[in-house]
Amino acid sequence: MIKAIRGTRDLLPPDTDLWNRVEAKVRDVFARYNFHEIRTPVFEDTSLFSRSVGEDTDIVTKEMFTWDDKGRAASEKSQSLTLRPENTAGVVRAYIEHGLDKRGTLQKLYYIGPQFRRERPQKGRYRQFYQIGAEIIGPPSAGSESPARDAEVLEMLATLLDELGLRGWTLQLNSVGCAADRARYNQALRDALKPVVATMCADCQRRSETNPLRVLDCKVPEDQPIIEKLPRISQYLDEPCRENFAAVRAMLAAVGVPYTINERMVRGLDYYTRTTFEFTHGDLGAQSAVLGGGRYDGLSESLDGPKAPGIGFAIGEDRLILALQAEGVTADAPLDAYIAPLGAGMNSHALRLARELRRAGVRADLGDESFRLKKSFEAAEKADARYIVIVGENEVAGGQFSVKELATGKQEPIARESLAEYLRRSQ
Ligand code: ATP
Ligand code: MG
């Protein structure tokens, strides 16, 4: 038997009803904040990711699905391609490629789609997973550098999670400063690590040379006491970065979005500057981050684009669904009615009635004339329908249908003209 590849999975009903509910809410909320959808390709030139995400990040060194794509003619050079491990790089590439900066306004873009990382599969960690993300990017003259954009994005996320009915989330907030701050902080980390790094894990030993900031990401338990004693980034922020972070925090306080400062949260991508954040959830175990994001003021330039500061985030949709399910949130897509044809020759009458009802907005499922009444009732119950509508010869002739509410057993005759209205009440 051929099975789905390790780390990939099929999403099936009724779970997909919840996925769709989440995505519909996302589109609704994002539209209220004037975000518009962008769809970028699932694979890109490999260098897009090595140059943006960063050469020494876990994503680029270990997790990408990369292959040499042979040109069609023997003479054509092959090209290194990669399944996107994240979507911000693709969005910024598209922003540059299509000259969106020339529109002169802030671009508020969102995406929903699969991402690919070669990770060890476990609960909340897959090789094909789904992200819902958004970016605000544009020329500084359009206000792209303003801390108000950071606060707007964070407030939108809090609203989205609240409206989805998720309760147990925590916003973890940090500032990783600008490039100069990070250079000074990296040097301080290097100095602090020098006497102790020999006792740390192999990854930390390498990172302490190449990219000391990444040491803070280390999950190895034995390394944690050492990491706890390392210098804190807040002490290395310059005055503008400090003020910027204070402004973001003041605005969050003004709108009542709660957060906790987490100075170790530096995030796994090199392009972040200033504000970085994660929303975590207590029911997710080791994979507690539901979403992550931050500001990336130099990203466009590092991809040879114009100056285009921005801020964005990516929600791990798989984990968001797990968190909602852990809290008992389900999709309510109730079936209004089960239409049960009763007796030979009634299928076409039932189909006609179902057509009328469905066109009038009723969610209806349709049985079969070969079913006896008892079997129709069982089918209606299995389908979780609120009402069952019996379609027999007498009902069709009299223009009146017997409608039974399954939960209560209450039964009423309803005229054909009022039926749709009556059944829709369950929505
Ligand atoms: P983690 O520390 O859990 O590996 P990350 O920092 O690598 O996360 P990001 O690149 O910030 O993750 O992606 C944003 C979100 O996407 C994460 O917060 C998480 O919810 C989700 N995510 C990342 N990798 C995976 C994966 N392999 N499977 C499922 N969801 C993922
Ligand atoms: Mg990761």
What does this 3D model show about the protein?
The chain contains 15 helices and 16 strands. Helix 1 (15-32) runs antiparallel to helix 5 and helix 5 runs parallel beside helix 9 (239-255). An eight-stranded mixed beta sheet has the order 1-5-6-11-10-9-7-8, sandwiched between helices. It has a five-stranded mixed beta sheet with strand order 13-12-14-15-16, sandwiched between helices. A three-stranded antiparallel beta sheet has the order 2-4-3. The mean pLDDT is 95. Helix 12 (347-359) links the parallel strand 12 (335-341) and strand 13 (364-366). With 427 residues, the protein is of the alpha+beta class. Helices cover 37% and strands 22% of the residues. 37% of the residues are buried. The site of adenosine-5'-triphosphate (ATP) has 18 residues, from strand 6, strand 10, strand 11 and helix 11.
